[in-house]
Design goal:
Serine Threonine Protein Phosphatase 5, Tetratricopeptide repeat, single chain, 13 helices, mainly alpha
Length: 296
């Protein structure tokens, strides 16, 4: 079962708005017609006719490849389909684009956007396939690393023979993202404050993903540490993270801390609120019954 998260939706929007570093690049025609407003930020494609923005500040090739007018036209159609109601059309345009132009300079950002769209539709097999193709082009694509590393532990079947490999993959992706995020170049048009908040949101989700990986591995102490780091940076608290923390702290006999985590979960409207309210009372009773001076 996959846990839905409002914070994930917000983080994904921020990452896409930051572009390939953490935006859809505008088509060449849009650059030449500066009097027209630019489309709203979409996933990180580069503007048609412009090389995609490097994710980690890599230097662009000295000589830009020749522009194919038909490729630019196809990319512009994908780029312009940036409204939420256009998700199905955007997916079709993106799939057609990478099928026809698999070596395009825009392929990475198209795959990254497709990954997010597939996730929103809970088409997880397609999501992972798009992630793999984006990372094959650029292993440092932060938006892809953060989202896939977060989704895997939230959705994994512990009885799957491949679960250990998948959890290790998610762990490696989140740790790599955490290494990359502090050094990301700031996109044009974003203030220092906006950029700092965007990086915090990405780091928050990466730590959340690591916390869920440790939870699945039953490493509760490290999981609590990661989830707490994630929540300190989160703009929007995640009830799932507080619920998992509560379960782990209760298992560690840290009943007062567990009651506090469940209380924070209970204060966030959603499907977990009632369950967390019951766990608050349960852990308060356990804390009261715990002998004074006893160790967790």
């Amino acid at each position: 079962m996959i846990f839905q998260s409002l914070r994930n939706a917000i983080t994904a929007a921020i990452l896409l708005a930051m572009g390939s570093t953490l935006v859809l690049a505008q088509p060449c025609g849009a650059q030449q017609q500066q009097q027209q407003p630019s489309p709203a930020p979409a996933p990180a494609p580069a503007k048609p006719g412009q090389a995609a923005a490097p994710q980690t500040g890599a230097t662009n090739p000295a000589e830009a490849p020749k522009v194919d007018p038909e490729e630019e036209k196809a990319y512009k159609a994908f780029y312009d389909a940036n409204a939420p109601a256009q998700a199905d059309a955007r997916i079709k345009l993106g799939e057609d684009f990478v099928a026809k132009y698999p070596k395009s300079k825009y392929a990475e950002v198209v795959y990254a956007r497709l990954m997010q769209d597939y996730f929103n539709k809970q088409q997880l097999d397609k999501m992972h396939d798009a992630a793999a193709k984006a990372l094959a082009i650029n292993p440092d694509n932060v938006s892809v690393l953060v989202l896939e590393g977060w989704v895997i532990p939230h959705n994994i079947d512990p009885n799957n023979m491949d679960s250990e490999r998948l959890l290790n993959k998610a762990e490696a992706e989140e740790k790599h993202a955490i290494e990359l995020i502090p050094n990301l170049p700031k996109p044009a048009g974003m203030t220092d404050d906006q950029f700092a908040k965007a990086k915090d949101a990405a780091l928050s989700q990466a730590h959340s993903g690591l916390g869920l990986v440790d939870f699945r591995k039953q490493d509760y102490a490290n999981s609590v540490t990661e989830l707490q780091q994630g929540e300190k940076l989160a703009t929007t608290p995640d009830p799932t993270d507080f619920y998992v923390m509560g379960i782990e702290l209760q298992a560690l006999n840290r009943f007062s801390d567990a009651a506090d985590a469940f209380q924070k979960c209970a204060q966030i409207p959603g499907g977990l609120a009632d369950r967390c309210k019951g766990k608050v009372d349960e852990n308060k009773k356990l804390a009261a019954a715990k002998p004074a001076g006893s160790k967790p």
